[in-house]
Structures are given as C-alpha cells and as structure tokens.
Design brief:
heterodimer; A: 11 strands; B: mainly beta; five-stranded mixed sheet; globular
C-alpha cells in the first residue's frame, strides 16, 4: 500500500497565482484532513471530510477550498496565493471512530512558498 | 474543539525513560487519547492511543489517570532518534471529525 500520497512535494508560487495540492489515499478511509504547519509551529486544521461529498471547515479555512468527489481523493485548492500561505501542508486520513485504532495516517507533506 | 495542554519542551538523557505529560481535562467519556510524534519536518506518526486503561506497544506506554483528565506517554529507553515533537489529542464519537492539534512538546534526547 502506498498510504497517503501528496503531490507536489515542493512548489513556488507567485502572489495571486492559484494551484491545487493533490492528496490520495489507498486505504479506503472515510476521514480525510488537510493541515498546514508554519515554521516552528504546530499543525493547524484547514478542512476535513468525513466521507465522499462531505467537507467541513477547520481552524484556518480562509483562502482555501476543498472537494471530496471520491473516497480516495481530497484536493486542496489555493486561490489567489498570498505570502501568508507559505507553509508545509500535510494531508491525513483515517478510518474514523469505531474502526481499528482510529489513528491518522499522514502524507510526507507539500512545501509551498509564495513569493 | 478538543484542547490539550503540554509542556513546550523537555530534555531526557539517552537510555533513560522519557515521561511526557498531557492535560486533557475536558475529555468526554467516549473520547480516546492519541499520541503522535513528528521528527524534523516529516508527517506526524501515530504512537499509541487509549481510553481508560494503561496501554503498551512496541514504541511506548500510555498511562491515563483514573479521572481521565491527564495522561503520560512513556518512552522507556529514549534514544537520540526519539528527539521529536510529541502531540497528544483526544477524539471519539461525534467529536472525532474536527481533529485539532496543540503546540506539542519538543523532546530533546541528549547523549
């Protein structure tokens, strides 16, 4: 199993550009998450999804959009990139409560710089 | 949102036990305590979880107080490779969806 795969691993954007961070998981997990982590800081939840077709805002959703058309994929869209969105983005997935340990599986991260 | 409190940093000598505390005084009866660690800038890695009983696996032990308001992660014989940021969170049932993390504890294991 590949687990949680994020692409791209690195990206440099100019202010005002848009892009999509891709996240796919092959574990048939219902729950998927996007976090961002600024240097020296903890993880901040951007958006999450409890199943295909269902998404909800996390702690810091402004400037981002998500969709969940399939169980496997949970892309994160950045519209009109700003320097404040320079960060490392982590995608995660899990079974959710009641199945297995309910632990999160994380991708390797996508490092985004906005100049 | 589930909130936990952890010390910002701790030190431990190599080979000694590292005991990392976490306060989760607002935890509900059906919510589990989960511990993760993040080495350098890699994606966080699951360590262990528990509900009310103490738990042990190949990586660590988890001690949860009887009132469930706090817990301690124990790395029995810390190595230099255990230097990382350790996060505890709690979640379960209807609170599972919005999983938020605090700042965590930076554990430094020194020779």
């Amino acid at each position: 199993n590949a687990g949680v795969t994020q692409t791209p691993k690195f990206r440099i954007l100019k202010i005002g550009q848009s892009m999509t961070l891709q996240c796919t998981q092959d574990m048939n997990h219902n729950y998927m998450y996007w976090y961002r982590q600024d240097p020296g800081m903890g993880l901040k939840l951007i958006y999450y999804s409890v199943g295909a077709g269902i998404t909800d805002k996390g702690e810091v959703p402004n400037g981002y959009n998500v969709s969940r058309s399939t169980t496997e994929d949970f892309p994160l869209r950045l519209e009109l990139a700003a320097p404040s969105q320079t960060s490392v983005y982590f995608c995660a997935s899990s079974w959710g409560p009641g199945q297995g340990a309910g632990e999160l599986f994380f991708g390797e991260g996508s490092r985004l710089t906005v100049l | 949102d589930a909130k936990t409190t952890q010390p910002p940093s701790m030190d431990c000598a190599e080979g000694r036990a590292a005991n990392l505390p976490c306060n989760h005084s607002t935890i509900s009866g059906n919510e589990y305590v989960y511990w993760y660690r993040q080495i350098h800038s890699q994606g966080p890695q699951y360590i262990i979880h528990g509900l009310k009983n103490n738990e042990t696996n190949e990586m660590a032990s988890l001690i949860i107080t009887e009132d469930r308001k706090s817990s301690t992660l124990i790395l029995p014989h810390a190595t230099l490779r255990d230097t990382a940021v350790y996060y505890c969170i709690f979640a379960g049932g209807t609170s599972y969806g919005k999983l938020t993390f605090g700042q965590g504890t930076i554990l430094t294991v020194h020779p």
